[in-house]
């Protein structure tokens, strides 16, 4: 291992330990850092490839078994270990608004990952997760309620939290939990759901949808036959590149055009799942087949994600993006910029980040994939310019 590789390892060790993240002994901590190290350099979750980058004279097979024992160690509780890192991440948003996206992703039709992520500059940083041994994308609140409560204890006082979730999380029990935690929510509801209004009685949401290109807003409505509320409902029907889309967003706060912009941020978590899978760490190629080991693997992926995104943030703020991103405008995600910077540093000896570097400020360089994308009107669901065409009724 050359000196630059050694520098990366010790920077990762300082980055992880500097957040307060700890295991029950130093060897377990060292194995975790080597796993993050191997993941970043091998760009995949294969343990035998991680072992190639593990310092030491032991056989590759012995190093691989060491990583395997770590992943199957029942004493490692991922969310408890990860908590100090989450606390460090959200400190930057003290007194600010945090948008947390809740979504699921499936693996091989056998496991469902329920992930809670902080929306951050076109991506979403994982702050909590649960791996369920189920092939269904619909997961009961009982499976992930504890995870939400654990994350809530990490949020700074006086910070506002807004949960963003799709139709699979339309559950009045979840809405009650949000109020208990002091969080707000924007949750998409199914068009077949009944809405009760004080003077108009009961109607399905689809009967209230506006005509194409329009939006409607309802205050003080009650949801489902349980008559849970009062809540507020924002409806929109518009044409996008993907065809006609009908949005029905339920909120605990007054709604308006901004409600659709807020909900659109939820799609950033889908980009985060791509980073975990085909566009990044190749999670789907893992040979692990039990939920606990997969959860520990996600701990490694989450730590690597925070390191690379932090590095990308630092590179952009220092004005050095052009060294790793050839686009005139930023064309790569912060994770990819950070990843390229690490590769460059291993060749050219550039400085590496050894501490968390995130920012609650607006993105100084929003990503634009090409000049054509920049010149075209942006009609993607996550970035619709509602003010251009929405008629409020």
Describe the overall structure.
The radius of gyration is 22 Å and the shape is globular. Residues 370-393 have low confidence and may be disordered. It has 393 residues and is α+β, with helices and mostly antiparallel strands. Strands 1, 2, 3, 4, 5, 6, 7, 8, 9, 10 and 11 form an 11-stranded mixed β-sheet that branches. The protein has helices at 3-17, 26-42, 47-52, 60-71, 78-90, 141-152, 172-181, 257-264, 268-276, 291-317, 334-348, 371-375, and strands at 97-107, 111-120, 123-132, 160-165, 184-188, 194-197, 201-204, 214-223, 228-240, 243-251, 391-392.
Compute the CA-based radius of gyration.
22 Å
By CATH, the architecture of the largest domain is named Alpha-Beta Complex
Helix-strand sequence: HHHHHEEEHEHEEEEEEHHHHHE
Helical percent range? 25-40%
CATH topology name of the largest domain = Transposase Inhibitor Protein From Tn5, Chain A, domain 1
CATH superfamily of the largest domain: Transposase Inhibitor Protein From Tn5, Chain A, domain 1
The span between the termini is: 66 Å
